[in-house]
Protein 1
Amino acid sequence: MAGVQTLKQKIQVNMKADRVVNTIKKKEGSFNDKTMERTKSVSFLALEGDVLKQYKSYKVTLNVVPKDDRVCIAKWTWEYEKLNDDVPPLTKYSLQITRATSRLGYYHENMSSMSRSFLVI
């Protein structure tokens, strides 16, 4: 086996960096998370669940870099070790996370406008 492998993805998000980190760290699951507010990063270490049926270790780190007041770059890093050579590439999990991240700004914008319309009524 190849040992610990790394996969990196960058995604532009139409949202403030602080809000992205706060949104991501609120997710629930079988992970131990460590948040670094100053550096706008959060790491997740898998403790149980389906991911550990294929991977001996699985750690995901998100670093968020502000681009301006309304846009940031989300930099995801996966560090993982396959249980055996037959385990497929990590694309299943990385695609889910990158798609969800790219939609954060859209989701947040729509939820904010819905909240405002409910308040007006």
Note: The chain has one domain: 5-120.
Protein 2
Amino acid sequence: MLDAGIEPNAFTLSALIKACSATNGLRLGKSLRGAVVRCGFGGNEVISAALIDMHGRNGESSASRQLFDEMPEPDSVCCTSMISALTRSDLYLEALCMFNLMHRKFGFMPDCFTFGSALTALGNLERLKQGREIHALAATGGFVADVFVGSSLVDMYAKCGVLEDSRRVLDGMPLKNSVSWCALLGGYCRKGKFGVVVNVFRGIDKDLYSFGTVLRACAIWPLRSWGRREGVKPDNISFIEVLFACSHSGLVGEGRRCFVSICNDYGMKPEIEHYSCMVDLLGRAGEIEEAEGLIMESEFGSDPMLWTALLGACASATSPGVAERIAKKVIRLKPDCHQSYVHLANVYKSVGRWQESHEIWKQMKERGVKKLPGMSWIGRTRSSSNPSIYALTFFV
């Protein structure tokens, strides 16, 4: 088009930016942003909304906010794109503030996408009261029948722990999809109602998304026999889900059988992610030497990722010799990993080998390996200068 001497118009640039959003082409999208300015379309609201959405989909919510703030009079589409961008970046409080701003300052009525993003934010913040208010507002506007809004409501109630309301909304939806069902299944999983998950799953159309969700529950059930009864063949991702669930549920025996079945029963080759899950499972169970043997027998024996994962489990290892051996292995494979130096120094200190502990710290300093500072979540009280951060008022 450019080679033919044809200048792009607003529709062309908007379509190209949307294509960049869909393909994660942030670098090209930024180049197009420069073209927008050069062509004189900087104030075009359709293009601005597309740019806000593009940056939001690529995790650059601050760039989205800058674009939004530069607009003299943003329209409802730009507001919705901004709310969606904030939600995707897990900035849920900011997304809710934008939701309020959209109605109170600009006077726009939310659409189905706006309601969906706001409900997603409320669900993740577990704000049931405000979620009910948004539900009422969506019902007043006639948006509850929309599958996107309905699924967001199911998810919001499920994350707030009100499974009866979540199921009631789902049953009232004229059109349901896998996202709708998985939102409910996820809620039952969080409540530990694994039997209900399986029963619900049997009655719905199965896809990889719903299958992956139900596998979290099936870590508590006889996995292989259940999968065979259902006639569903798991893939590599499915096995990662199961092994992860076994690890966090303490099901060591079931995890071992599941790992062996990848090759023996399904003819698939275990990948490094499967080995990583098994190392984590065995490490949590204190089976350090078994995990070490598993790594050494695999084709990934020289990959530092697996040894680093095992090193974390050595914190509670009863054998200092094993912990020393694994820490030295990590240092050889990944010399810039500070955890290995710290752990090895602590191992030496715990058995009274003070000089060797000092040598490890000295070696770490000489190699320029920095110990990352520890971090923790600290609850904050409401700010008197900006009380709106913790006191969001919703309208009905």
Note: Residues 220-230, 374-396 have pLDDT under 50 and may be disordered.
